[in-house]
Structure formats: C-alpha cells, structure tokens
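User: I'm putting together a teaching handout on how multi-component assemblies are represented. Below are the sequence lines for each component of a complex, exactly as they appear in our records. Could you produce the 3D structure of the whole assembly as structure tokens, so the students can see both representations side by side? Please keep the chain order the same as the input.
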Amino acid sequence: MTERVVIIGAGQAGAQAAASLRVEKFDGAITMIGAETEPPYQRPPLSKAYLQGALEKSRLYLKPVEFYEKHSIDLRLGVRASAIDRAAKTVTLEGGEALSYDKLLIATGAPPRKLKAPGAELAGIHYLRSIADSDALGPVLKSGERIVIVGAGYIGLEVAAVARKAGLPVTVLEAMERPLQRVAGPEVSAFYADLHRSAGVDLRIGAMVAGFEGEGRVRAAVLKDGETIPCGAVLVGVGAAPETGLAEAAGLKVENGVWVDDHARTEDPAIWAAGDVTNHPSALYGRRMRLESVPNAIEQGKAAAVNMAGGDMVYDTVPWFWSDQYDVKLQTAGISEGADARVVRGAPGERKLAVWYLKEGRLLAVDTMNDPPSFLIGKKLIAAKSTPDPKILADSAADLKSLLS
Amino acid sequence: MPKITFIEHSGAEHVVDADVGLSVMEAAVRNSVPGIDADCGGACACATCHVYVDAAWIEKTGKPEAMEESMLDFAHEPKENSRLSCQINMTADLDGLIVRLPEFQG
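Assistant: Of course. Below is the structure of the complete assembly, with chains in the same order as your input.
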C-alpha cells in the first residue's frame, strides 16, 4: 500500500522536507497543509528587499508553483489543521476533513508574540511574519509619518533601516538595556545603536510601552514614563513563540517547542518535527535548543525527510543567522550563550567588526559585521570545537586561515 | 528565453530556461539543479551557490564585488573564475551561459 506522509506547515522547513523526500526517492503520497494562501516562500526578504519593493513576490517562492504538481506533492493552501489523532493516525482539517497518515511532520513554525497593552488591537499596529503582513506594511513606508517600532531585535531593526531609507521618521523602543540584547554581546549592540542613530533613528533604550492611543487607528504610542510619541503606524517585533498547540493537544511532549531527538523525531515514532517549532538536542553544544532561523529549517527539514524515508541522518549543524541593515551585513555563526570571554577584531568606527565568543577557550560563536572571512572561518572552527588563539582572533592583520590548519 | 547550462562535478549537464532579471542561482533552484544549495536565498550570506564561470563568459558576467569576493575566498576550491551564482543577474546577453559546479558547497 502507498505510504502517506502529511506535513503540517508549508514554510521553509515543510517545503524542504517535501522536496527532500522526493530527492530521497520516497514514492508515497505527500500532502502539505499551509495556513497561508501563498505557496512556500522565503521569509527573510519580507523585512528587507521585498518590503522595500525591490523584489517581486514570485521571487520569494521557494519553488515554482508547478514544482509541487510535478513531484506529486499535494499542496493544500489556505487550510489549517485543527487536530492530530495519534491513535487513528489522522490529521483533521478545519472544516472537518480527516487526512490519514503513516508518517507526520509538524513544521508549524513560530509566529510573532503579540503585545498585550491597552490599544494594542488598534488598526495601524503591525506584526511581520507573512507576505500579507509585509504587503500591509509597504504603504506605511510611503506615508511620510513617524513609525514607532517596538523591539530592537532583528525584525525591528531591519524594518527601521528600510523605513529610514524610505525617509520616514523612526522611533525604536527597546525595553532592555541595549539592542539585540538577547542574541548578541555589548560590542555588537553598540555597533547597531551607532549605525541606527547615525542614520537618524530615534533609538530609546529601557523604554517600556504602556499602550497606544487613537480612534480606531493608532495615532500615538504611550510610554510608561508618560511620554506620548505621535505616529502613523507601529511595528511590533518582540520575538516569536513556537506554534505548539496541535502537538500539545495530541499529547506530544512540548517544552519551549516540540520535543524531538537528534533525528528530528518526536516521542511518537510516526511523528517528526522540524524548523522554528522544535526543541532539539545539539551534540555540539551539549544541550537542547530551539532556533529561529532559515538554515535550521532547511537542515532539520532535510534530516526529517531522510529519516522519514527510512534513512539515518543526525541533525547537528552549526547554527547560523544573517541580517541586512543599511550597508551592513551581519552574519552570526554559533550560539554565544554561556560564553565567558569575548574577543573583538576590528575597530567599531570602521563598519567592519567581528566579536568572538569563547568558553574556557573554546569558540562558541562569532558575530561578524561586513566581515565574511571571520564568519566562514568561525563556522568551521566552531564545528571543530576549536580553541583558537585569542591573539590571532583579535589581530586584524593576522591571517585567520592559519587557525584552520 | 535565455538558457543556462549547468555542468555538475560529475559531468551531468542541465540546460535550463532563465528569465531575464532572475539570478543564475534562482534559475538553478527553480529547475532543481542539484549542487546549488543557496541556503540564504540570494542574500550573499552563505556561499552555497558557488559556480565556476566558463572561460568564454567571464567578461560578460563581470567581476565579483568586494563582499562576494571575500565570501568566495572561503568556498570549496575557489578559482579565478569562481562566482556566487546569486550575484549574477540574467540578461539577454548571457543567453547560452555555461557554469560548472564545484564538488560540493561550503
């Protein structure tokens, strides 16, 4: 009998898994369910090139629409799954249809956290995850009115850069002590604070939002210290939370994400999970983690597919991330959490900088700004669990390649 | 529509149609050419769409910019004719372009 794979979620991880299943010569039925009406697409440009209007929508699509039909992937768009019945091995869709599966992949991702504050439901308060969100934000950039951005993380800062380029007055409100605080060291935060302030962004640190004012539509953000900032729109970028509802309701283990092993498999041998939604082990770091990144979605989606097709693939890669703001490319390799030392290469004034994070001499991570060599070498050193000489890391004149031998 | 020939390390050839305005990487991904990973989707951030441009085409594809060049330096076996295919945009002039793929990316 034909084996049936159902994939819940048509984002980067789900789409990768579907494509990889066919590469692995899986010849059973594949059904992929997507809540959005667009075919699988890349999200990173939604806060960058696409938002600026520099990229056509069709160029966001991961594969041409014909790809799915050609590879017998039944793509069901604009449909949500409402329940997983593990005993009956079915996924129920909103509307009542039940899809039987032999193997199931949960790839539901991590939608934005919602801000809870008075007035947070007003029109003109935006979040950014989908093409529809980016399309809604596009016209705001032409308004000329101030945009208030809540949260100085990747999304908030990328949108701030695009909005400044479009000529908008921009205020960024960060509740913590520095931008990118959750993901980067103080040198990186200082670099980005300078970058945005010199581009004219009104960046407020330690700024707590009390709520929003407006008649139906937001006209101002109000801070806890009482200050009112008039604006035409608000973008909220305060992190994402894994979409674990279906897994949890089905009795799967959920703890900051769907709990999977190093083969991307849940405790149910018929169910795998991949991408932003998973909490997975990392042998490299000797602990579990949940990552929000494209490379994680691609590699874990691939591993899940290989294993669903009967193969044996461990998922344990060096996490990496990137962000484009103005003329600066940030590339991060590894996870800096737990570092006991930081080494800086380059001078912040140069708009080129690398910050290396070490723990007991071992390289955990590197943040690089306009410095691809440090990023690419760092990635290799991290994978090899290297203990590179900090003097060479810090010396811009020293050849980093010497660390690879 | 302009065509591009991708030649895998094994010698296998893929001739694909490439819309003007798309990058060479996008033409490869849209046509499922194996060996072009393009993890970052064309942001010049990952160096997994490395190709070698056929000698006859180097003048037309042009030289890499500084950021791309420093990424290429760390690709697998970079050569004089190495490019990141996400940074080559298709034009009518590039109809018939031939690129070869490295043994692996990264």
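A couple of points students might notice: Chain B has one domain: 3-100. The two ends of chain B are 31 Å apart (CA to CA).
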